Amino acid sequence: MKIDLGDDHEPEIGLVALIDCIFFLLMFFMVATTFKANQDNKRDRSIPVDLPKAAATSRADEASTTGMVIAVARDGAIYVDGVATTQNRLHDRLRDLAARDAHAVIRIDGDRRAPFEDVVSIMDLCAFEGLTNLAVHVRN
């Protein structure tokens, strides 16, 4: 025996709920992507360096995780791992690093408007201490 329950309507898909879910997923991926980009540049976020552009570059991801990151700002200011320093203190840090690991990777981020002699003097300090594994960071 068939029981009559009232209205015989076809089931409907709630379009408003689907749109809400899509917007929620969109916001989630936008926020997750923003956090990922900030974690990659955590060491040098506050350094005012406008990197020069290069036509062809090689990928040197190990330079951002090992050794030291030295930045030269437009006005010639020197930053080591995001902290402002002088050339004498930089020389001391390079000497200590060379004593611990002579094959450490040194990444140099030079502002494109900084005098080239400031970057060369840092390269000379590295060579003087026996650190020859240098990488120059540029934009693609």
Task: Explain this structure.
A hairpin with a 5-residue loop joins β1 (68-72) and β2. The chain has helices at 15-40, 62-65, 87-100, 116-128; strands at 68-72, 78-80, 83-85, 106-110, 134-136. A 5-stranded mixed β-sheet has the order 3-2-1-4-5. Helix content is 41%, strand content 14%. It is built from 4 helices and 5 strands. With 140 residues, it is an alpha/beta fold. The protein has 2 domains: 12-42; 62-136, Nucleotidyltransferase, domain 5 (2-Layer Sandwich). It is rod-shaped.
Describe, in short, the structure shown.
With 140 residues, the chain is α/β, with parallel strands linked by helices. It has four helices and five strands. It folds into two domains: 31 residues; 75 residues, Nucleotidyltransferase, domain 5 (2-Layer Sandwich), CATH 3.30.420.
Here the CATH topology of the largest domain equals: Nucleotidyltransferase, domain 5
CATH class of the largest domain: Alpha Beta
Q: Kindly give the count of domains.
A: 2
Overall CATH architecture of the largest domain: 2-Layer Sandwich
Q: What share of residues are in beta strands?
A: 5-15%
Q: What is the H/E string?
A: HHEEEHEHE
User: What sort of overall outline do the alpha carbons produce when their principal axes are compared?
Assistant: rod-shaped
Main pleated-sheet profile = 5 strands, mixed
By secondary-structure content and strand pairing, the structural class works out as alpha/beta
Tell me the total number of β-strands.
5
